[in-house]
Amino acid sequence: MHIPDGLLDTPVCLVTGGISLVAVAYSVHRLKDSLADRTVPMTGMVAAMVFAGQMVNFPVLAGTSGHLVGGVLAARLLGPWAGCLALTLVLFVQKFLFNDGGLLALGPNVFHMAVIGSLGGYAIQSAVARLAGDTVRSRVIGVVISGWVTVMAAAVLCSIEFAVSHAANPEFRFLHFLALMMLFHALIGIGESLISGGIIRHVAIRRPELLYNPPTTTSRPWRNSIAAGFCVALLATVLLAPLASSSPDGLEVVLAESHLSTTQSGSPSLFDNYTAVLSTDGWEYWSVVISGLLGSTIVFVIAIVLGRPLHRPSAAATEGARD
Amino acid sequence: MTDSAPFCAARLEPGAIVKLISSVTIVLLACSISWEAWPAAGALLAVTLAALACAGVRLAVLCRRLGLFLPIMSLIALSIPLSQGFTSTWLQISATVLLRGVISFLSGLWLIHVLPFDNLLLTMRGLRVPAVVVACLAMMHRYLFVLWEEIERLRTARRARRFGRPSRIFDWLAAVGLIGTLVIRSLDRGHRIHRAMLARGWDGHLRPWP
User: Fold this and answer.
1) pLDDT in tens, A170-182
2) pTM assigned to the model
3) What is the SS3 assignment for B41?
4) How would you classify residue B115: left for phi > 0, otherwise alpha for psi between -120 and 50, otherwise beta?
């Protein structure tokens, strides 16, 4: 169910409604170039299709079921601008034909599902396609990832909007509300990503030309994603590893409580306790960073060396079709 | 698309505007009422129910719609004390959210009964909403029920090919395939409609009839 009236303050609804109005107006403006004379039939038809698709229930728990939201699906089929407009039309019809969702809350609903869902979802899908290559598989992976991320992003935004609505209340505990919202929407997001990814895979296998900007048929090696992942690991090492908690971990606590010695048996190690040769006063931060960088690089090299024979396909596999 | 009622320019019906403004006013009033002003909320609820009665909404229809709305609205309202604690402050806020939601829901129910969707599209054109948006809405409204019937046919075909009680995983896979088939058929139908429009002189520009 969409956000009903009364949950969020009127000023919050008006502000998010204004943002949604600007985003939808810009989407309509961009549609003149991207779809031209196909705007009306294709957008209207996809909006009707998303609405009808939301009628299909997916059993979740005893007596409850979920349904598709459709933001990332519409973006994958029609592109970001038409997808945003299509979802807006769906929410409009749901309100003024079936009374689903609030009237003032139409702004936040459009913001979460159409703007974040379609525009944000397409941005994530494009990023995945750039990293992993423009193939059908990367498109499906992009839809799966964007389905979960957009639902979680909408949950966080809704929590912030609720917090702003109750900003005057000193008893309001934002983190508690955020935790509850994210817990439920994590499950909803898994459902959305599975359903959207399954639908796009179904369409991509049978009719890949129906996807927005159909993928190229040649496959690309995953070097970009490997390089990106390695860079992310190095960045995390440089920025986050030194911030790790200095409190004892579980094993150390158990050993301490059992009055067992925590000192090593004397085996030699190059970087004792992750502090390297620079473990003089004031250089602890850089010691940890250097240790982390060397460790990540060594692990990466080992993985590449061990993984290379596994990557080389057999002769029989090369004769088969690749996606 | 030659059924151009939604594209007639400046067909602003005063009655439709009054109904829209009334509904928005009720929602704004409902959302500004605090827990302490519960008599005012009660009065607003009574006014809304009276409006529904005047619009000819039967009690059975009202109860059925409320029966679908109230459980979910109650869960949403319950999430507040669940996350903040079951103190009197948060219980009052939860009850206020529930009351506001119910009044707004009843106001929306009244609006959809007194303002048919076609009249709403006419009113939107009169309010200078971009013609392409109204046209997309009209197209969506036109084919919404066609695709709804398509979904029902696909469901019937699925049930006819199913034996015994399927597992939940099978239900999910079948539902995904059902929507995927609907997507393919809908996009093909959209392309056919586009070609039919081109064959009848469509060039992407909406021209309101005088």
Assistant:
1) 778 888 888 888 8
2) 0.75
3) helix
4) beta
> What is the predicted pLDDT for the residue at A92?
92
Q: Cα-flanking dihedrals φ and ψ of residue A65, to 5°?
A: -145, 160
pLDDT band at A209, cuts 50/70/90? confident
- Confidence at residue A107, expressed as pLDDT on a 0 to 100 scale: 93
pLDDT at residue A100, as a whole number: 86
Token pair 């390297």 is found at A276
For chain A, which residues make up each domain, given as ranges? 10-258+268-310
> Domain A10-258+268-310, what architecture?
Orthogonal Bundle (1.10)
Is residue A317 pLDDT above 90, yes or no? Answer: no
**Residues 43 to 62 of B: which have CB under 8 A from any A CB?**
none
| A–B CB contacts, 8 A cutoff, strictly below | 226
Chain B, 145-204: which have a CB under 8 Å from a chain A CB?
146-148, 150-151, 168, 171-173, 175-184, 186-187, 189-191, 193-194, 197-198, 202-204
Give Cα separations from A205 to A75, A310, B38, B143, B189 (angstroms): 18, 27, 58, 26, 19
Phi, psi of A269 (to 5 degrees): -140, 145
Return d(Cα A286, Cα A293) in angstroms, integer: 10
